[in-house]
Specification:
Blueprint (H helix, E strand, L loop, with lengths): L1 H10 L3 E2 L11 E2 L5 E6 L2 E6 L2 E2 L15 H12 L11 H12 L3 H15 L12 H22 L16 H12 L3 H14 L2 H8 L5 H8 L1 H10 L5 H19 L4
Antiparallel strand pairs: 1-2, 3-4, 4-5
Length: 261
Amino acid sequence: MLQSVSYRCRVRGICTTRHVRDNKVPAVRRFWRSAGVDERSGKYVVTLDNRPIKTPNGTAVELAPSQKLLAWLIAGEWETQSEFIGAHSLPLTSLVCRSIDGLGDATVRADVVDKLLKYFHTDSACLHEKYPSVLVELQQRHYIPIVEWARKEYGIEISLTSDMFALQQTRESTETLCAVLAGFSPLKLAALEKATMSAKSLLIGLALVEHHVTAEDAAMAAQVETNAQTQLWGLLENAHDIDNAALRQILGASACATIGA
């Protein structure tokens, strides 16, 4: 795996500052002067020094006319890189590549849908504790609006419980959501996959990629338990700050990836 990473860096002209050693991926130096967006053959491409970016598998990244804003956001990710490419600093690019290299395959798509549906049966938005009061208040404020939206939007039953092991959603509701997810474009499904895994909630992920909630709303819902603990016992300095920033970066990218999708 490490050898393949090093090989890809070489063939794409990426300059590494040190060899792969101690199981660490090498730092990757910025190798382009400017990033931009071009319209070619009716589609938008993100360019580095006028050359279009490609996925790790070598497929051209082409965006539909409705995704012009997304193209510029991706270009912005590359333009804001400093001397070295920051770890996890290209979230939109990562989602687009995932949609092309991975979710363009029907078998992979089906596997991802099955994986996401499992979150529905352990969904954090459906787990409602009865105490302490600060947690109950946050659950009511952030979980209930999303649950009610999903019930109305998809016409499904959604069970709520305080016991994770007792949570069980109906087969009809699961099949309805399965059909919804199967109809998503590869990019929208990639965004949902990342948002759901980060928020530990399919319902929060759906509300985000369907633009019912903002990335900040989704983050607040995903962090209900953490925020309740913070109010009770205080902030764990540095650790919580990092978690907060990382979560919002992921959810923000997932929301932006569905613009024009």
